[in-house]
Amino acid sequence: GAGVSQSPSNKVTEKGKDVELRCDPISGHTALYWYRQRLGQGLEFLIYFQGNSAPDKSGLPSDRFSAERTGESVSTLTIQRTQQEDSAVYLCASSLVPLNTEAFFGQGTRLTVV
Amino acid sequence: GENVEQHPSTLSVQEGDSAVIKCTYSDSASNYFPWYKQELGKRPQLIIDIRSNVGEKKDQRIAVTLNKTAKHFSLHITETQPEDSAVYFCAAENSGYALNFGKGTSLLVTP
A51 - beta bridge partners? Predict the structure, then answer.
């Protein structure tokens, strides 16, 4: 597949459980972004990776949120001790280096915390 | 970090009319300004972008203007059609940092 792939597409979890969301960027894209989109809301920036380093973690809403990236490929976003307010669509995007090029989005993971 | 403000939050126009969405940004070092369209239940997709070395760019019915001095940029859609109905997001990027989005404009084009 040529696009950004995210898994799972849907996740229902109980409050207090940990979840792990996965993003496979487009091959060769060194920039990777995670965003959160609550229902009917905008794109809330979470974290940005350049390669496997994260120069901008300013958007992570709490210490329950963390993200990793292996090399210049797969990234995982982990949410510990999930809360109901974590319910949202989590979108991943990737783009080429140099930056200032189109960011391609995955289809998102819809997380529901019950 | 970059702060991107977008107005209006909702916009309703009649088919054939023009629609204008405006954004402002805070970081004068920002040099890339894309616009994304998100249809209901789908992922955002790039429709047009502009870099800081130009003031205007046009692609068929869509145009974007950039005023670096005032730190604002706008999306113009002419001859709107019902299929233009969607949420539109502007964004600004300072090379080496994250792509920050405005809160979106929900555009409704009525026949």
Answer: none
> Do B37 and B88 form a contact (C-beta atoms < 8 A)?
yes
CA distance B67 to chain A (A): 18
| In contact, B4 and B74? CB cutoff 8 Å | no
Whole-Å CA distances, B35 to A14, A82, B99? 36, 32, 11
Q: Give the three-state DSSP class for A84.
A: helix
Q: How many CB atoms lie within 10 A of CB A59?
A: 18
Low-confidence ranges of chain A (pLDDT < 70): 1, 97-99
Q: What is the pLDDT of residue A1?
A: 54
> Which of chain B's residues have a Cβ under 8 Å away from the Cβ of A95?
99
Write out the DSSP string of B42-98: S--EEEEEEETT-SEEEETTEEEEEETTTTEEEEEE-S--GGG-EEEEEEEE-TTS-
**Residue B93: band (very low, low, confident or very high) from pLDDT cuts 50, 70, 90:** confident
Cβ of residue A32 closer than 8 Å to a chain B Cβ: no
Which whole-number Å values give the CA distances from A63 to A46, A60, A78, A91, in the listed order? 12, 8, 10, 19
Contact A50, A103 (CB under 8 A): no
Strand A75-79 to strand A19-24: parallel, antiparallel, or no bridges (unpaired)?
A: antiparallel
Q: Between vectors from CA B82 to CA B56 and to CA B8, what angle results, nearest 5°?
A: 55
Report helix, strand and coil shares of chain A as percent, to nearest 5: 5, 50, 50
Does the CB of A45 have a partner CB in chain B at under 8 Å? Answer: yes
